[in-house]
Amino acid sequence: MPASPNHMYKVDYKENKGKCVVAVSQMRAGYCIVEAHPEIFVPLSVKYMAPRVIDAENEETNYRTVNICFYCFEKFSKSVYCPNCKYVVYCSDVCLDLAWKLHREECEVFKSNIFDKFCPSIIMRMVINSYLNHFNFYEYCGSVEELPKEKYEYFKYPAYIVAVALMSKKKKLFSNFEDNESILKNIIEKFVKISKNSLQIIDNDLEPAGLAFYKKPVPYFNHSCLSNCVTIFKNQKLFIRTLVDVYPGEELTISYVDIAFDRNTRLAICMDQYFFTCSCKLCKVNMVSECQHIFNTELLCTQSESCKKCVNHMELLLISELERKSCYMNKNQFKSAYPVFKKTNEQQHVWKCSICKGEVHDNVIKSLVEKEKETVKEASHLESLFSEKYTYDNKSVLQALNKIKSKIDYLTTFYHHTKYSLQKMRAKILYISIQLQEFKLAYNIANQYLKSIEVTYGKYSPIYGYYIFLTGKLALFLDLKSEGLSLIHKAKKNIIKTYGPDSPIYKDLEKFLYTNKY
Questions:
Q1: Distances in whole angstroms, Cα of residue 340 to Cα of each of 73, 286, 359, 423
Q2: Which of 83, 261, 445, 451 has the most other CB atoms within 10 Å of its CB?
Q3: Ranges for the MYND-type domain (predicted)?
Q4: What is the residue extent of each domain of the chain?
Q5: pTM for the full model?
């Protein structure tokens, strides 16, 4: 009889890390270590909500539409607002009624006058909930003492808003505090605790959906960009599953940040939100992290065969690390230089490749940078047409879509295809092309995007499984049956381990395989 999940690991203490989770027994890839419901949770959409009263001068402010139910976390097209506070939104009267027990006290606080022109952020709402639920953070890491002075000052204003809101309706909460400064300090400590110990909820479409705090052992799972476990969500419920085979004594880690970001951005997020410096292999200065950093930040040369070959080798090196495989290529070729364009000292307006010495004029580079900014804006505008449910003309949207795709393809002549901004734009136009039912175009974009995902996340990632399955479905819609089924079978191996056999995506996959059996 298999051991229960909590007998497969233990909570340990390491001097340089604090509390951490360590494997006691061997676990195969796909093993579910944790299933947990949150103690406190808030949909991400709260930060896009408008204040109840909008100043005339701010009427043009673009507030995004709330489309996530604050109770069941399902997306919806029609919303039902709480009739009392006008802040919390549900998908139906049923959810509104079911949520009242959880929302009742919070509702009173949200009726505070301070929220008429100040919308509470997601982290502020989490802090308010922690006070109302009398949640004890004693066993969890994070304290005011570890905050630098400027960060403490940064938290003072939102802490003041929380204090005013709570004291206006729930004054007894702070009856034991001596003065206002000690109240602020206590609230800021809650900000730190929640920042350090909460997880971002990711929905079925791999989009951020909310923030949640789960009881131990979840907060004790440390971060690694090369984690051996993955967090999967079914609405607010969390599942932590092993990505690879794990052996006794190994620390179990999850990733707090999107590893598609460049190294500096990831390090900044870890320090700014979680107050630590990541020291995993993708963040330390070494060949693997350098390859990933170059792909995200530098202008690459592919003018010569030697440069193309070097880029391919860099990709293989990175994929090998992501998939925990040995790479037997000669790494000495990277010691002298990488195939990147650098501005020369000899000629002021010329950029030269470090390997083949190919040259590009400064005007080309400036034009490229401007084109990237322009394309990012165009892709975001196009996405807003769909997310905000505006009316649009299919023909003009399709023209804009093809234009953006052509620009992205051009940008990849100098930028690597895994550059964060290019990946996000590809994901947006893929979504839009599917909404337009332009499946041939979507299939083309998906195939381009898959290569980027493999190099960025590796084949063990749930993101890879998700997009392999999506590409397979698109192939079936285009009557490319053998290609589609091949991709879906490939996705199945990933999804059963990452999402699990009871997940909605796996059940959907099984349905596609069954209906296309003959």
A1: 45, 17, 11, 20
A2: 445
A3: 69-107
A4: 5-37+214-274, 40-198, 287-360, 364-515
A5: 0.88
